[in-house]
C-alpha cells in the first residue's frame, strides 16, 4: 500500500479517506502520512548502514513538531539553520548531540544557544563566522565543534534558486580559500575542527554532481591530514530529488549512498547527510476546495481556497505539482488554471491542468510535504492552513488552523 492511493474512486492517506479529513478540519488542509515519512528516512538508514553515519533531517523542509517527533523516535539527527529551528527540535525531544547547525548568517545569540544546548557541530560558512564563533565560544568558556562548509563550484543541475554549490552563490568557503581557513581554525583554542561539509543544491536527480563534490572534499581531507589536521566526519548535505511528475525520477538512495561511499573509500570518516525534501516531500498533500469555475475568453480558471500564501513553490520556482480530484466524479473535463484568491497573477497552483471538476469539489495537490507549509505566509491576511498527520487508520491534528485575530494580535494602534 502506498501512502496515498485510491480506493473505490476515493483518494486515501494510509487507511483514512482524505475527504473525511477535509470534512472534519476544513480546507486548505495539509495531510501527512507518518508511514511515508518513516519509509523515506529508513531508505537512508538502510543505504548507509555499513558505515558510521548520522542522518540529520533538514528541519527547514517541514518543521512541524509532530514530524520532528516522528523522526526523533526513529533516532534521527537534525540540520538546523536558526535558533528557532533549534528550539523546535529540542521541544520535539531531539538530542542536541545529533544536531548540526548550517547557514550563512548565524547570529551570536543563535551560536550561544546552540553551544549551550551542546550541538554536534557548526557548519561554518566564512572566515568571519569562524572568528565570531571562536569569540562566542571563548566568552562562554566552551569549545565549539566545527566543520567548514566548502563551496566546491560544482553545478548541481537544478533550478538556479535552489542551486548552492557554485562560486556565484553566497554559500560556503571557496576551494581556494578553504585550506587557509582550516589552518586558522585549527589554531583557535576555542574551536575543535572536526569535519568538512558541502551542500550543492536541492532537488538533485543525478549522481554525478554528488560524486564530483565529494571527490573534491575528500581530496581536501587528505591534504589536511598530511598537514596534521585530522577530520572525523564528512557532511555531504542534502538535496536528494523526488519525482514531482512522471517524467522526473527520484534519486535512487541506495545508488547515491554507494557513490558517496566509493568516493570516501576506506577513510575513517563518519558520514553525515542532511536530507529534507526526500524525507517528507512525497509524504504530504495539500487539500483545497474549488470555490468557483470561471472563464475569461477561452481560458478556464478553477478558483480554489488555497493560494500562493499556502503553497509558494509554483509562484516562486514555476514548480509543477500534480493536482487531482479527491473523489472521481462524473464531470466534464476541461483545461484549467488552478488559481487562488490572492491578488497576484503569480497566484497559481497549477496551469493548464486537465481536470474533471465542479464547484465545491475537493482537490489534492501532491508532493506537498516539503517546502510547502514551511514557506507559507499570511499574505492578504490569510490564516495559515491546519495540518493533520495520518497514522494507519487514525488521524491527528498536528497544527490548528490559525485564528484570524491572532494574525494582528501583535500590532498596535497609534496612541
Ligand atoms: N542542507 C542545507 C545546508 C540546505 O541548505 C538544505 C536546503 C538542505 C540541507 C536540504 O535540502 P533538501 O534535501 O531538502 O533538498 N524551497 C526550495 C528548496 C530550498 C532548499 C534550501 N536548502 C523548494 O521548494 O524547492
What are the salient characteristics of this protein?
415 residues; 2 domains; binds ligand LLP; nine-stranded mixed sheet; 29% helix; 12 helices; alpha/beta; TIM Barrel; Lyase, Ornithine Decarboxylase, Chain A, domain 1; eight-stranded parallel β-barrel
Q: Could you explain the architecture of this structure?
A:
The structure is a single chain. The chain is an alpha/beta fold and 415 residues long. It has two domains: 4-32 and 281-407, Lyase, Ornithine Decarboxylase, Chain A, domain 1, CATH 2.40.37; 34-279, Alanine racemase (TIM Barrel). Helices cover 29% and strands 27% of the residues. The chain is built from twelve helices and 21 strands. The strands form three sheets. Strands 4, 14, 15, 16, 17, 18, 19, 20 and 21 form a nine-stranded mixed β-sheet that branches. Strands 5-6-7-8-9-11-12-13 form an eight-stranded parallel barrel, surrounded by five helices. The protein has a three-stranded antiparallel β-sheet with strand order 1-2-3. Helix 5 (108-117) crosses helix 6 and helix 8 runs parallel beside helix 9. The longest helix is centred in the middle third of the chain and has 19 residues, at 208-226. The mean pLDDT is 96. The site of ligand LLP has 21 residues, from helix 10 and helix 11. Ligand LLP binds at residues 58, 61, 79, 102, 162, 199, 202-203, 237-240, 274-278, 313, 317, 370-371.
Amino acid at each position: 500500500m502506498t501512502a496515498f492511493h485510491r480506493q473505490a474512486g476515493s483518494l486515501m492517506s494510509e487507511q483514512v479517506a482524505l475527504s473525511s479529513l477535509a470534512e472534519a478540519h476544513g480546507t486548505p488542509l495539509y495531510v501527512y502520512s507518518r508511514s511515508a515519512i518513516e519509509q523515506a528516512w529508513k531508505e537512508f538508514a538502510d543505504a548507509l548502514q555499513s558505515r558510521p553515519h548520522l542522518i540529520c533531517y533538514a528541519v527547514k523542509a517541514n518543521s512541524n513538531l509532530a514530524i520532528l517527533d516522528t523522526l526523533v523516535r526513529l533516532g534521527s539527527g537534525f540540520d538546523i539553520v536558526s535558533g528557532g529551528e533549534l528550539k523546535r527540535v529540542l521541544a520535539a525531544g531531539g538530542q542536541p548531540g545529533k544536531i548540526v547547525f548550517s547557514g550563512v548568517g548565524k547570529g551570536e545569540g543563535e551560536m550561544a544557544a546552540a553551544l549551550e544546548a551542546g550541538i554536534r557541530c557548526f557548519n561554518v560558512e566564512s572566515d568571519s563566522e569562524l572568528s565570531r564563533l571562536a569569540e562566542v565560544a571563548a566568552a562562554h568558556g566552551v569549545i565549539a565543534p566545527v566543520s567548514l562548509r566548502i563551496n566546491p563550484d560544482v553545478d548541481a543541475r537544478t533550478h538556479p534558486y535552489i542551486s548552492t554549490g557554485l562560486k556565484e552563490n553566497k554559500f560556503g568557503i571557496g576551494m581556494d580559500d578553504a585550506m587557509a581557513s582550516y589552518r586558522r581554525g585549527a589554531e583557535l583554542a576555542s574551536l575543535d575542527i572536526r569535519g568538512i561539509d558541502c551542500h550543492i543544491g536541492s532537488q538533485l536527480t543525478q549522481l554525478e554532481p554528488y560524486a564530483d563534490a565529494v571527490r573534491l572534499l575528500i581530496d581536501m581531507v587528505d591534504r589536511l591530514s598530511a598537514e596534521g589536521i585530522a577530520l572525523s566526519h564528512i557532511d555531504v548535505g542534502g538535496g536528494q530529488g523526488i519525482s514531482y511528475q512522471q517524467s522526473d525520477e527520484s534519486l535512487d538512495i541506495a545508488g547515491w549512498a554507494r557513490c558517496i561511499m566509493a568516493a570516501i573509500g576506506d577513510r575513517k570518516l563518519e558520514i553525515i547527510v542532511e536530507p529534507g525534501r526526500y524525507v517528507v516531500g512525497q509524504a504530504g498533500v495539500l487539500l483545497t476546495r474549488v470555490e468557483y469555475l470561471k472563464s475569461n475568453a477561452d481560458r478556464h480558471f478553477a478558483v480554489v481556497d488555497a493560494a500562493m500564501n499556502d503553497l509558494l513553490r509554483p509562484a516562486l520556482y514555476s514548480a509543477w505539482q500534480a493536482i487531482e480530484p479527491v473523489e472521481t466524479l462524473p464531470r466534464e473535463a476541461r483545461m484549467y488554471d488552478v488559481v487562488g484568491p490572492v491578488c497576484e497573477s503569480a497566484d497559481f497552483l497549477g496551469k493548464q491542468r486537465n481536470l474533471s471538476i465542479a464547484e465545491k469539489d475537493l482537490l489534492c495537490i501532491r508532493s506537498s510535504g516539503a517546502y510547502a507549509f514551511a514557506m507559507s505566509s499570511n499574505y492578504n491576511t490569510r490564516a495559515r492552513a491546519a495540518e493533520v498527520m495520518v497514522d494507519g487508520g487514525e488521524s491527528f491534528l498536528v497544527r490548528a488552523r490559525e485564528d484570524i485575530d491572532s494574525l494582528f494580535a501583535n500590532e498596535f494602534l497609534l496612541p
